[in-house]
Amino acid sequence: GNSSKELPGTAMKLYFVYLEEYASILEEENCSVMLNFATAPKAKRGHTISLPKGFDDVIVDSGGFQLQTNVKTNRVVSVKNYALWLYHAIQEFPNLKYMNLDIRGDEELTLKHLAYLEDAGFHPIPVWHGSLWGVDNYYLGYYASEYEYIALGDIAGKKRSRQKILNITNFVHQNYPGNKFHLLGVGVGASAICRMLNPYSIDFSTWANVRLFGHEVIRIGDTVKEQEMSKEDRQRVRVDKEFAQFKVRQGIKALKEFE
């Protein structure tokens, strides 16, 4: 029946949010990476855009979150700019997967962006926002009937209790068993939930919290956990670059095992 238990024989794809600082480790560990249109590296002289080399599997987030939170970006986020960037990105990387430019709280505009990109010949992955769950499931139903692969945004976050995340993911799991779902921006702490839902794919950004916050990602039994390092390690990681890289690689390996 439709239970929330892990499906046998289905592996979850894990995308690591790309950081140039650790690009060589991501490449060496054979990681799939997520770029964000808003913050992707600026083009080098003589190039239209700059895509990281050495990765077989790349997915792009549209920068809708950055647009709405006014964080510093490398470019102006608009659907026209995104379409132009995608055009050049696909020339370099024909297998590129990419999200629609979603606007949280405005599903109609999100849908207009989807239509704009499709009219321009692109095939974006639609994004549905978990904050609508229980209020308006119309758009999720529409996406599920028209598209196989859907991204779920606004699922995790400080205001979302573990139970709320489980309720949303269970609802999706039970009502749309024929679709593939990507969980957007899930923290390492939500890994147990990922085990239960077993989505088609997820992306993690907190894998790189080593240097920023002195955190490390470790494997505990069937799950992974982000925890604060010892005081000695926190101090060392700030000054010893090789040690920081070792800790990052350790975290990547723990997450890769979790795939």
Q: Which SSEs are present, and which pair or pack?
A:
Elements (H helix, E strand, L loop, with lengths): L12 E5 L5 H6 L3 E5 L21 E4 L2 H6 L9 H14 L4 E2 L8 H13 L7 E3 L8 H9 L2 E5 L8 H14 L4 E4 L7 H7 L3 E4 L4 H5 L1 E6 L2 E6 L2 H9 L1 H18 L1
Parallel strand pairs: 1-2, 1-8, 2-3, 3-4, 5-6, 6-7, 7-8
Antiparallel strand pairs: 9-10
Helix pairs in contact: 9-10
Main structural class: alpha/beta
State the helical fraction. 25-40%
Q: How would you sum up the major sheet?
A: 8 strands, parallel
Sheet with most strands: strand arrangement: 4-3-2-1-8-7-6-5
Question: Order of helices and strands, N to C?
Answer: EHEEHHEHEHEHEHEHEEHH
Quick check: average pLDDT?
Answer: 82
What characteristic shape results from the CA principal axes?
globular
Radius of gyration: 18 Å
The tally of helices reads 10
> How big a fraction of the residues is strand?
15-25%
Low-confidence stretches: 1-9
Calculate the terminal CA-CA distance, rounded to whole Å. 24 Å
Beta-strand segment tally: 10
3D structure, described in words:
This protein has 259 residues and is an alpha/beta fold. 39% of the residues lie in helices and 17% in strands. The chain is built from ten helices and ten strands. The strands form two sheets. It has an eight-stranded parallel β-sheet with strand order 4-3-2-1-8-7-6-5, covered by helices on one side. Strands 9-10 form a two-stranded antiparallel sheet. Strand 9 (215-220) and strand 10 form a beta hairpin. Helix 9 crosses helix 10 (241-258). The longest helix is centred in the C-terminal third of the chain and has 18 residues, at 241-258. The chain is globular, with a radius of gyration of 18 Å. Mean pLDDT is 82; it is low at 1-9.
